[in-house]
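Record pair follows.
FIRST:
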Amino acid sequence: MSGLGLLSRWLLFGEWRAHPMRALLAVAAIAVGVAMGFAIHLINAAAFNEFSAAIQSLAGQADLQVRGREAQFDESIYPRLATHEGVALASPVLELDAALAGRPGSLKVVGLDALRAGYVSPDLAGVPQKGRGADVLADDTIFLSPAAQNWLGAQAGATLMLRAGTRNVPLRVAGPILRARSGQRLGVMDIGALQWRFHQLGKLSRIDLKLRDGVDRAAFERGLARELERDFPGRFTVAAPNDANQESRNNNLSRAYRVNLTVLALVALFTGAFLVFSTQALSVLRRRSQFALLRVLGLPRRLLLRQVLLEGASLGVIGALLGIAAGYGLAAAALAFFGGDLGAGYFPGVKPTVHFTPVAASVFFLLGLGVALLGCAAPAWEAARARPAVALKSGNDETALARLARIWPSLLCLGAAAACAFAPPVFELPLFGYFAVALLLIGGIGLMPRLAASSFRFLNRLHMRRGSGHPERAPSPVLSLALARLANAPGQASIALGGVLASFSLMVAMGIMVASFRVSVDDWMLHILPADLYVRTASGGNTGGLGPAEQAAIAALPGVAQAAFLRTRPLSLDPARPNITLVARDIDAADPGRLLALVGASAPAPAGELPAWVSEAMSDLYGMHAGQRIELPLGGRKQVFFIAGVWRDYANQSGSAIVRLADYRRLTGDTTVTDAALWAADGTQPESIAARLRGLPFGASLQLASPGEIRAASLRIFDRSFAVTYLLEAIAIAIGLSGVAATFSAQTLARAREFGMLRHVGVSRGQVLRILALEGGSLTVLGVATGFALGLLISLILVYVVNPQSFHWTMQLHLPWSLLGSVAAVLVAASVATALVSGRYALSSGPVRAVREDW
């Protein structure tokens, strides 16, 4: 066994020394795929865990929480809960996302009763300065977490300006919070002061309950939930802090985003699998005679199979280990510089730190190793099954690749892909859609030998027929030799074509998907932003707003032909899902399509019923369609609305519903609005209206934006959210280009004897180089054309299956021709350049030396 082990090491290290660049590229492809996937997992796991821990820290030691289906509810329920049998202590809580005056963003402010919260949420207690203990009950003080102090640049004694309606509320920073989580941006103040300062008198967000000793929490929770549902139907939910429903709710918030990024990261791994395949296939072809000699000398077939698998596995082990290390470094850097949401905004106000997870590292290591073994499985099987007598002969390489031309496995994959494309989501994830993409790639690459043979044989016949019977138009010998080679060696051509196909088709698919989404978002904003000027009081939070007096002043401005107002607020329809967004706006029920991007058929509301329009996400998540009725918790009770249509809303992934502003005000008594849209009268410029708005008594608190500015800002946010997708797409292109270069160079160098023979029969050096350039260019053009067709099919699955099942909205198809054309041109140029460079090196040894082995 020691002799066999020594032979195995000789073969392994000898191959690496002979062709280090091919091995390095395969290792790099696997490392990049593992690194990106592992980094995305670590980033999202850290952000999600920190976000959940931050929510848990706000709950403190509460046994149960009573929350309203609306963002706030009337505090009249508090005495009943505080005196309920089995309750030891009830702590009222009001949470607001307070807008910051003069800067974007918002600060989460928690109002607590200091006398009760100390028993439930002691970590959130404010720490006043020495001799100023009364600050915990003062009406003009706020305590900030260290992260909030650093973010706002407001230490103890500084004045913090927050926004309440159109007024600025000055608050003195009285000190830090006792124990806030690292990176948690949080402010705490007396609940009565928070209610008064921010116009929320009599309102609460939740009530934390501490139960008496010996009370069965589960039984008490069920009983209290039944009691509240009986007396206050549809108004309250009762749950333990971070129970299964809340955990699922937090998880659902970003799950589709995380899964899609992880799948895109695995694209690099797929490309790595093909690079391993091409590396090992070319290596086995080059060493067929060596392996045959070893078989003749007595090496068992299983040991030869193990040797080739060992060579592929070594690439996977090295690549996976490097990927794990690089992924951890990438995650740490991304969390330090960009935060935990990768630009998507799912985890605001937390600063997570990366933690190495051995289980996840093992999974991604096995993925990298498995991809490498999968890539070298076919070459290993061919090496073991080859007949020694046939393999010892020179020039039988194409025979070894004959099995690649079998068409039925590819057709089976394509058929399965078509079936998976129409399958429903699993756990609200497009798992079958991803399977369809993978099967399309496998089936498309598997068809390449047959496609290459048919295409180049047709071109060769056409070329020869064009010159027959016309001596003056004799076919070019260079073109004839190039086409003959490609037509009669489809197996080797398919190895090179597969690299082009894999990289270009995935690039096409991702490019079309992102471009389609971006164009759809832009067109959607053009439709829903018809006004000339938009007004709001704050760029973040939920404490800014316009009262009736401010609304009247804005509508009465000279030059304003029409003013429409809008109010948004969150609602909970299902405790296991994130809140939906309720939008109350001035809308004409007879013509809702003027302001809404409606999809599907509409159903006008019957007389006497209240119309509502739900988003595609609500239609998908809650099974709601036009013509049905929906119950929305408004004004402390369930209100029934008739669904008059479904609209496209790219702003709210968890769902949204639109009701008429007049209906909303009548049902809730809430007369404030969050936004205003203004249409300029004929002959009036929006700039003059903006100047008049700034001249109002509250004009300094207004934020003005034109539709173009809103679109530009939204597209910047879109690009930031898809920054990781762009990075993964660039990596896939880079790996694909490297794979193309490695495959072409390896095949060119392996044909040194063939070129030597051509030189002996009179073909010049320049003609050989032109043959190589034609072969490389022709192969790449065919690969690009096929890759475009395959990528277009994959993009259809991404646009019409994966995206709706992941994010619950639809989009229109858009092809970015400039991007696709430029990448295709780069691929063709790279393949031609690689073929020429490799050809020069292969021809450098001279014709006699090149063919010496054949003599």
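SECOND:
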Amino acid sequence: MSTDTPDDGDQPADRVEHVRVEDEMEQSYIDYAMSVIAGRALPDVRDGLKPVHRRILYAMHEDGITAGSGHRKSSSIVGTTMGDYHPHGDSAIYDALARMAQDFSMRAPLVDGQGNFGSIDGDPPAAMRYTEARMSPIAEELLEDIDKDTVDFSSNYDDRLTEPDVLPAAFPNLLVNGSSGIAVGMSTNVPPHNLREVVDATVELIENPEATVEDLMEHVEGPDFPTGANIVGRNGVHQAYKTGRGRVRMRAEFKVDEEASRIVVTELPFQANKARLIERIADDVNEGKIEGIRDLRDESDRDGIRIVIELKRDAMAEVVKNQLLESHLETTFGVINLALVDGEPRVLTLKETLQEYIKHRREVVRRRSEYDLAEAEDRAHILEGRLKALENAEDVVEAIRNSDDRDDAKAMLQEEWGFSEEQAAHVVRMQLGSLTSMEREAIEDEYENVQATIDRLETILGSDEELDSVIVDELEAVAEEYGDERRTSFVEDDGTVTHEDLIPESEQVVVMTDDDYIKRMSLEEFRTQNRGGKGIIGTGLKEGDAVASVFVANSHDYLLCFTNHGQVYKLKTYEVPEMSRTARGKSAVNLLDLDDDERIEAVVNTDDIEHTEGDADEQFLTMVTRGGYIKRSGVSEFQNILSTGIRAISLEEGDALADVEVTDGTQDVVIASRDGMSIRFDETEARAMGRTARGVRGIDLEGDDEVAAVAGVDGDRASWLLTVTENGYGKRSDLDAYRVQSRNGKGLIDIKTNDRNGGVTALHAVGPGDHLVTMSEAGQIMRCPVEDLSIVGRNTMGVTVMDLDGDDRVAAVDVIDAERIEDGTEE
């Protein structure tokens, strides 16, 4: 009976496993991710090296390419590394080798390169066949004692050789040189540090294991980048050291030379590409994003960085500097202190990083001491045999001479004198010349030294304190040999450069119309004129529109804008679009959320609000309504103003807010009515109230008269009350002409009003040197010194301030304080 044997291809599988595809893919991806994490992308916390860097250095060590040898072709080093230890692309290995040779990338370069290894301009290294390399002296410290069983070894990729799992690392290389890399789902970005500072912190932690991160930061100020430059503030550094993550702001080192009208950059932030930086600055200048630069030169040489930015004659150096900081001269280093700890990725604080290094170093010194102790004990054993042979020299020589062969001689020595096998073998190999008395003395000296070494090593191995003292001594020796001064400085955190920093400070005229068009113009466009002139065009208007308000403020000032509805809005002057005198302006809908019939009646500059000493510890916003009510509220009530505004005062039906003044709790206030009446009283007669209050009666109005304005009288600065009417008339009157009364009286005549000069539009307390800015509803604007207006009595019509055409009327009036003019902000 015959049986058919099936072909091999028809044999059934020994084992069939049914698995879900998603489970298999998940596990395979996890295996791949861990391979990338542990085998390529992340550094080991113990020596601070990724596998490729460790393999390059070990290959150089094995080939004897040390700091004391000659340079070797980079292609030879790469080939050895790739063939023996790192079975990946040669370009990846050469890139790693080149980076270890770049003094602008590594705080302590581990490779001494010869040739072109790239530049801070982003130039790539020359091909590996053109460059040469060898280990730098400090790199040898990473491999010191590697041949003394200090670290574990594993088989290389083809089981032909072994390679170290980690280097002994005589200094904390992870912190000194930093590391960066992207793995699967995680990344690391450790900044470089100063060797001396890191060693001091390590020693501190060894001697005081309870030291906190704050204690260690007394030694490690922060990252120390190879390119120098500055770190802005310390909060980001503290966060990184305490949590393992943080953002460090880096700023170029530069000098603003206003006399020579230029900015000179001498140090760049870490990892900045100089050539690309200059190119981007030039692009921004050409596109008009940066104004005020007329020339840009790279004068860098072997001595260092020097970028010269020449400014235009009329450029504001501070503004150009801030524009450069915003886009080019300031960058952020995101610290992620992620490293492998026992083969697993962990985010470490500064203390944890040093603790892991110290643990590793203790293991290295312990294993080295054990190795050295075994070597010393073996040597002592041999020396003991030699000394015993010397004591019985004649008998030993005679015995060896009478032996049949070496083995017989060794056996006889072991039997007759008790030599061990190793001692007997050594004695048999001894030369007769070693039996001299001088040789005996040398052996005895060596034996004493070896015994002392054994005692020392046993002490180290028997005491944690002694072992730690060895680590400390060796760390301090490395710091003494290779340490240098800190390169990166700290500058105070003056805040991130904002859009505001890019706006030059200048006095601006802000104009708003009834139809909610708004714009700003430089006050310099409006030179002082003599009173009685027509002024110049201040704004263009569409048909049916008219100017509603005008005020003068610094471009960086915050403004509180009060409306006739009793709402208050907060606005930054520079947020208002800057336009020409003849331009209409832009809709204010994106700046102020005003209702259809709502308009700005008063503007308070927060630059004028400040806490004062004395009886009042806060200033007040004093508001008056058309119906004669007055209310004071502390400025603290207006700290948080929403984008939609907040209620400043409650109004009776038919009433409206007329004017607002800043007072300090010690002043008199003067309320002026449209028909020319005024009343002066102590502001405390109107007690301070909350924002939602209505207030109390300030003036008793007759008929259809209404309040036009309010002024706070500061006797130390103000000398006169200045009144302007709607038909362009105005006058100055001495303060003494307005006697103090009780509130809610009818008051006194402030100015005689009639059809010729019209009703009162504005009232201001003014002093010598102040300027008056008057704007008409038709858009004409005029600026003149207040002292151009004659000082006259209260019951007069005043003189012409502004010559108005036809039915035009004065829309708004503002005053520029003399202090602003004297400070140089104005002529």
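COMMENT: The first strand starts at residue 72 and ends at 73.
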